[in-house]
Design goal:
Layout: E1 27-29, H1 31-49, H2 54-73, E2 74-76, E3 89-95, E4 98-105, E5 116-118, H3 122-127, E6 135-137, E7 144-151
Parallel strand pairs: 1-2, 4-5
Antiparallel strand pairs: 3-4, 3-7, 6-7
Helix pairs in contact: 1-2
Length: 153
């Protein structure tokens, strides 16, 4: 039999499991974001303690390594300045008669469904430092947007 058709075991044919990618740059988080990371670590530790399946344990350990590294590298950003857009700022955009509210947060706290965007997102980078009433051209929105801002709770 040819070596090409011989298989010693299933292990050599499994897809490799890579570590979860860590976003480049500083790990800036809001107070809320830091609490979410802490909670995620606690949840994973609890699930790992009761896990009996070896493959599932490996997956949980990989996830826990990611979240622990995010916790140790987290840099909590204080309350944002009420005059300029920063991390932790809720921004209301008005463009073409429509309003859109976004909150700028850290990478791990971002969630498009709840309009929380990471500070590294193109639209967030364009907004950083803007002040109330500024008109800014934003990627994907075409016309200039007028903004109002407030600190996120």
């Amino acid at each position: 039999m040819s070596v090409a058709f011989r298989r010693d075991g299933d292990e050599e044919h499994l897809e490799p499991r890579f570590e979860l990618p860590i976003p480049p740059g500083p790990n800036l988080v809001t107070v809320r974001g830091y609490a979410l990371i802490e909670a995620r670590c606690g949840e994973l530790e609890g699930r790992l303690a009761g896990e009996t399946d070896e493959d599932r344990s490996k997956t949980l350990l990989r996830d826990l390594r990611y979240w622990r590294s995010r916790l140790t590298s987290a840099q909590v950003v204080g309350k944002p300045d009420a005059r300029a857009v920063g991390i932790g700022t809720r921004v209301t955009l008005q463009a073409g008669g429509r309003f859109r509210v976004l909150t700028i947060v850290g990478h791990d706290e971002s969630d498009a469904a709840s309009s929380r965007i990471a500070f590294a997102a193109p639209i967030a980078r364009a907004l950083m430092g803007a002040e109330v009433g500024d008109e800014i051209a934003l990627p994907g929105l075409g016309d200039a947007c007028v903004i109002s801002i407030e600190a996120d709770d």
